[in-house]
Amino acid sequence: MYLVIDGKKISQEIKDELKEKAAAMKAQGEERCLAVIQVGSDPASTVYVNNKKKACTYIGINSLAYELPEETTEEELIGIIGELNERADVNGILVQLPLPKHINEERVLLAIAPEKDVDGFHPVNVGNLSIGRPGYVSCTPAGVIQLLKRSGIEIEGKECVVLGRSNIVGKPMAMLLLRENGTVTVCHSRTKNLKEITRRADILVVAIGKPKFVDESYVKEGAVVIDVGIHRNENNKLCGDVDFERVAPHTSAITPVPGGVGPMTIAMLMSNCMQ
């Protein structure tokens, strides 16, 4: 029988731990504050921003919301980030992606001070991760590590395969698994003999953005499968990059979509804010 890893439950545990920590800090006169900037009114972004605000309220982190019109210029946005960098009462700055087409995402992310980059996207934080120095880590991969650890799944010495090489998930995921002493292979769209490689994995992390791409033919019997994907299928139901029904019986543990990796991203964002 396989374990369905409950991301909702684990993320709630983390948020409750952070809530206690925030209360203890408050008692000593210390507070945390997250500034969230959204440009335009993309419906998915609005949902994410509201969830972040709710999480801040729950834990006891102050939040500032900047809801800027679609036509905001890159200069105006960078100007606001500059002011927030200077503010001693703001600990974290988050710019909700994607940004409108006329704004250069890379320039905006570079404008955030690395010590306030709670998303872990700034090259300084990415560099710190790659050489094992402390810094903020991208929230989704950090959440995957917590899911594994809190489910009692050993990473050290295990053969780990990451399917996908994005800057937000694939690359930091590989580095975090390495940091936990896993033996890591990264696969991508140009990988040859893909199934041969994924079938070696004790831990398979799938983040390729293709609905139900991974079926049982990609998975070794008894592997742990982590599904980072999120899509809507033809019936408007949420599904992941992994065909859960077909893959689950062949695993020892698997994350569902929804309710697996998703809830962990905000929990880890809150954890970064508390740092």
CATH class of the largest domain: Alpha Beta
Strand order of the largest sheet: 1-11-8-7-5-6
Category from helices, strands and their pairing: alpha/beta
Task: Kindly estimate the percentage of residues that lie in beta strands according to DSSP.
Answer: 15-25%
Largest sheet: 6 strands, parallel
The CATH superfamily of the largest domain turns out to be NAD(P)-binding Rossmann-like Domain
Based on the coordinates given, report the CATH architecture of the largest domain: 3-Layer(aba) Sandwich
Oligomerization: single chain
Number of strands: 11
Number of individual domains: 2
Number of distinct helices: 10
- Detail the poorly predicted runs: none
- Mean model confidence by pLDDT: 96
Radius of gyration: 19 Å
Give the CATH topology of the largest domain: Rossmann fold
| Cα end-to-end separation | 38 Å
Shape: globular
Order of helices and strands: EHEHEHEHHHEHEHEEEEHEH
